[in-house]
C-alpha cells in the first residue's frame, strides 16, 4: 500500500490549531438549528452551504474562495468568511482535494500526449462542475500542448450540469464536454467498454455503501482501456463529522485507507493504488491503473 501526505497544501497554522482545540468541540455540539442560523446570518458563503448542502453549488462556494478578496464584502463579512473558510477544516480540505485531483489529471494527460496520443477520452462520474478537469485542460492549452480531450460528465443533478456548462463556457471548452444527466449506476449502458483513457469519481463515493460502491467501480473498471487511470476519493474519519452533519449535509460513508483499498480491489482493480492524504486529514484520494 502506497500512502503519501501532501503537506504543501492548505493546512492550519499553530494559532489556528490552538484555537480549534476550543472551537471544534463547540461547533460539534451546538444545536443544529442554532448552527445553521448562525452560518446563514454571518456569512453569505456559509449560508449557501446550508441551503445547498452536498450539491455542486455548495462545493463551488468553497472551491472559489480565492476568486475574490477576503474583505471585499466588508470587514464583518470578511471576519465571518475567515472563520468559515479557514478555521473550519472542510473548505480547506475540499480545495486541497481539488488540487490533488487536478495535478493527477494533468500529469496523466501530459504522459499520454507525450506518448503520441492526441485524442483523450475522459469519464467524470458525479462530476458536478468538472472544475478539476477544466483547470487541468486549460493549463495544458496555455502550455501549447496539442491534444483533443473529450470529457463525458455523468451527473444525475441537472443543476450541477448547468453549473458545469457555465464554467466550461467561460474557459472556451463547450465543445470538450458531453453532459449526461443520468445515474452513475447506468454507466454500463452509457459508456462503451474499454473506451476510456482516464476516469474520475471524486465526491460521489462518499454517498455509496460498500456494495453499491463496488458495483459502480466495477463498471468504471470495465470502461477503462488497459492501463487506463482511475482517480477516486472518499471522505475520511475526522473531528468535524458532527459539525458537517448539523450543517444539513447529506449522510456520508466515512472510510479509512484500508476500506477504500478493499473496495477498489473488489471492483476488479488488481494493481496497487497510490493513496494521497491532504494535510487536514479529511479527504483520501486514490489513484490506480487498470
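^ C-alpha cells above, recovered residues below v
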Amino acid at each position: 500500500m502506497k500512502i503519501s501526505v501532501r503537506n504543501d497544501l492548505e493546512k492550519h497554522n499553530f494559532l489556528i490549531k490552538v484555537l480549534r482545540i476550543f472551537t471544534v468541540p463547540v461547533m460539534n455540539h451546538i444545536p443544529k438549528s442554532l448552527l445553521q442560523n448562525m452560518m446563514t446570518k454571518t456569512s453569505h458563503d456559509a449560508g449557501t452551504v446550508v441551503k445547498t448542502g452536498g450539491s455542486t453549488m455548495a462545493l463551488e462556494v468553497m472551491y472559489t474562495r480565492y476568486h475574490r478578496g477576503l474583505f471585499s464584502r466588508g470587514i464583518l463579512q470578511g471576519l465571518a468568511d475567515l472563520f468559515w473558510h479557514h478555521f473550519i477544516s472542510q473548505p480547506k480540505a475540499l480545495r486541497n482535494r481539488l488540487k490533488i485531483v487536478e495535478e493527477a489529471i494533468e500529469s496523466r494527460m501530459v504522459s499520454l500526449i507525450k506518448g503520441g496520443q492526441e485524442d483523450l477520452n475522459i469519464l467524470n462520474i458525479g462530476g458536478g462542475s468538472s472544475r478539476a478537469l477544466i483547470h487541468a485542460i486549460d493549463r495544458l492549452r496555455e502550455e501549447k500542448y496539442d491534444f483533443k480531450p473529450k470529457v463525458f460528465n455523468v451527473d444525475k443533478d441537472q443543476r450541477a450540469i448547468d453549473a458545469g456548462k457555465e464554467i466550461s463556457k467561460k474557459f472556451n471548452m463547450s465543445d470538450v464536454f458531453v453532459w449526461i444527466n443520468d445515474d452513475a449506476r447506468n454507466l454500463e449502458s452509457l459508456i462503451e467498454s474499454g473506451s476510456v483513457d482516464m476516469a474520475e469519481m471524486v465526491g460521489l463515493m462518499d454517498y455509496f455503501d460498500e456494495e453499491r460502491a463496488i458495483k459502480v467501480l466495477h463498471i468504471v473498471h470495465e470502461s477503462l482501456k488497459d492501463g487506463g487511470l482511475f482517480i477516486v476519493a472518499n471522505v475520511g474519519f475526522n473531528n468535524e463529522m458532527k459539525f458537517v452533519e448539523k450543517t444539513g449535509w447529506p449522510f456520508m460513508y466515512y472510510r479509512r485507507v484500508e476500506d477504500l483499498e478493499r473496495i477498489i480491489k473488489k471492483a476488479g482493480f488488481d494493481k496497487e493504488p497510490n493513496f494521497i492524504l491532504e494535510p487536514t486529514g479529511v479527504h483520501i484520494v486514490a489513484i490506480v491503473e487498470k
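Strands lie at 2-5, 119-125, 148-154, 177-180, 196-201, 224-235, 274-277, 283-289.
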